[in-house]
Structures are given as C-alpha cells and as structure tokens.
Amino acid sequence: MPKYIFNKETLNYEEYTYSGKWKFLRGVLVFAASVAMSVLYLWFYTSVLGCDLPKTAFLKKTNARLSSELELMNRELDSDAGYLASFQSRDNDIYRSVFGMSEIPAEVRNAGFGGVNRYAYLEAVDRTGLLRKTEVRLDMLTKKAYVQSGSFDEIESVAKKAGDMALCIPSVPPVIPDRNVYRLSSSFGYRSDPFSGRKKRHTGLDFACKTGNEVHATADGVVETVRTDTYGYGKYIIVDHGFGYKTRYAHLSRIDVKVGDKVKRGSAIALSGNSGRSSGPHLHYEVIYKGNYVNPMNYMDLGMSVTEYVQVTEKAAGQVVSRGNPA
After folding, report:
1. How far apart are CA 264 and CA 313, in angstroms?
2. Can you give the pLDDT at residue 279?
3. Alpha carbon distance, N-terminus to C-terminus of the chain
4. pLDDT tens digits along 152-184
5. Contacts for 22 with CB less than 8 Å, ≥ 6 apart
6. Is pLDDT larger for residue 313 or for residue 317?
7. What's the rounded mean pLDDT across residues 119-142?
8. pLDDT at 24 over 90
9. Of 248, 268, 250, nearest to 324 (Cα)?
10. How many Å apart are CA 69 and CA 130, to the nearest integer?
11. b/e for 141-155, b at 16 or more Cβ within 10 A?
C-alpha cells in the first residue's frame, strides 16, 4: 500500500517513494528475520519438543528396518553355521574315517582371508559394525561350505571304489585257522614282557607255531617294507593296504616278497620263525590304522573254516602280480 506525506509547500498529500537503498535494506532485514524465525522454529521443534525432521525420521526408520533385517540374517547365519558344524563333525568322524581318509585340519576349515582389508569400503557407512560383521560371517560360511563341498566330492570319488576298499581291509587271519597248527600265545594290549617282566603294551597278536609255517597277507596291498631288526622284530614285512590300513608280519624265518610287490588277500608272503627279540617260534602280527596300532581281533574271524581259508589262498596264488626274491 503506498505511503503518503503532507507537502508544506504545495499544501497537498503526495505519495512517498522509497529509495533503492532503503528497499534493499528492508529486504535484507525481512530475510534475516525469516531465517532467525526458521532457526528458532527448528530448534524448538527438535530440541524442546524432541521431534525429528521428516528426512531424519525417514532415514531413522529405514536404518531401523535394515538393522532388523541384518539381525534376522545373523540369526539365520547362526542356524546355518550350526548345520555346517554338524556336517563337518560327521565328515571327519564318520564319512572320512570309514574310508580311511585323513581328517581335514581345523586350520584349513577355519582359514580366514589374508592380505588387503576386504571390508574397507564399509568403514565409512557402518558405524555400528553390524554390516561388516554380517559380511565377514557370510564370507567365512561360504568358504567353509566350499571346503566341505570339496570334501564330499572327494568322499564320493573314494566311495565309488568301495569294492576295492573291502578287499583292502585286513579281515582274514595271517596263518591257516587250524588250532592244530597254531596257538594264540599273546593278545593285544598290556602284558608282562617275557624278557623284563615289566608291564608293557603289546601292539599285536602272537601266533605260536613251528618255524616254517606259511604266512599270508590278510588283505590286498603293496609291500612297503622288508627289513631285518636283529634286536626287535627280526625279519619283518609291512604291507600298505591303502585307505589308512597297514599290517606287519614279524619274527619271520624267510621272506618271499620284495618292496613294491602287489599282493592279494591270502597271498603267501613269508614263513614264520624265531628271528629278532623272540622267546620262541611264532608270528607277531599287527594292524595299523592311520598310524595307530589297533586290535587285529576286531578285523578277523579266527573261527573261519580251514576249507574257506584254503580257497582264499588258492585264489590269491593265481592272482599274484609280482614276486620278489626270497630274503
């Protein structure tokens, strides 16, 4: 609305015109007042009333939703980690053990990621660390699942050879199961040493029999060791059957195989004797599984009929792949 002032010279009311400087100054004052009022309003709205600005409220709501989803994902990862741990336990204790395979070391299953920080890109946006934690867990579970998948592939490959494995388990006696031929003089476990009288662990079975009694391989395998230990096993043979199994035949009088020979279950490999540290003619027989001595009685049936045993040895005689010079 225009402003009028009284002109004393003309004795009339005339319209007053503001200068450009005054208009500018008034505009600045109005703008400053508006800003001050806006700031005061925002302060009162956020600090006194405790309310969030619309954008802030939207971001908080979005952040809460994403955090809930990450928490839910972590709970699901907990469940998945439990299932994977169960698979790993069964894998080492059952599946791989059954097939004589070595366990996968924990350091291989739980290996992390070395080198450059893979999660540096999250540091600027992840103040709580929840996103980084979830990403790390997801990567670790993925890697563990990859290792487990590889193990199952390996087991599947070995399982396809299960028929071969059955022939490689030492499941028949090393001597003909005729009680008129042998006597089981020492069993597996602790006993009084026949030389020192002290209690000592006996790592195999002793078949007391006359020198020259035929000794047979108890499973398919390859001759790994042919050696003479004057103050211990005497003349002895170690056969590697694969799948974690080895057998030892000791105190022999003669050895009829050489290192590298392939033998079948029932193959004649030596003659019993009294060599080495022995208190009388006998065959000392051991079963070694994955480096540990185990009780041979858990693998063989001494009640096997002589007829059946002879059939096994005769079949092996026609399947000998190679034969070394007698030792």
Report:
1. 9
2. 86
3. 130
4. 888 777 777 666 777 888 989 999 999 999 999
5. none
6. 313
7. 78
8. no
9. 268
10. 11
11. eeebeebbeebeebb
The one-letter code for the residue type at 62 is T
Right CATH for 169-317 from 3.40.50.150, 3.30.9.10, 3.40.50.620, 2.70.70.10? 2.70.70.10
pLDDT digits (tens, 9 = 90+) for 42-95: 776 667 666 666 676 667 778 778 778 888 888 888 888 888 888 888 888 777
Q: Does residue 287 contact residue 299 with C-beta atoms inside 8 Å?
A: yes
Domain ranges of the chain: 3-48, 68-160, 169-317
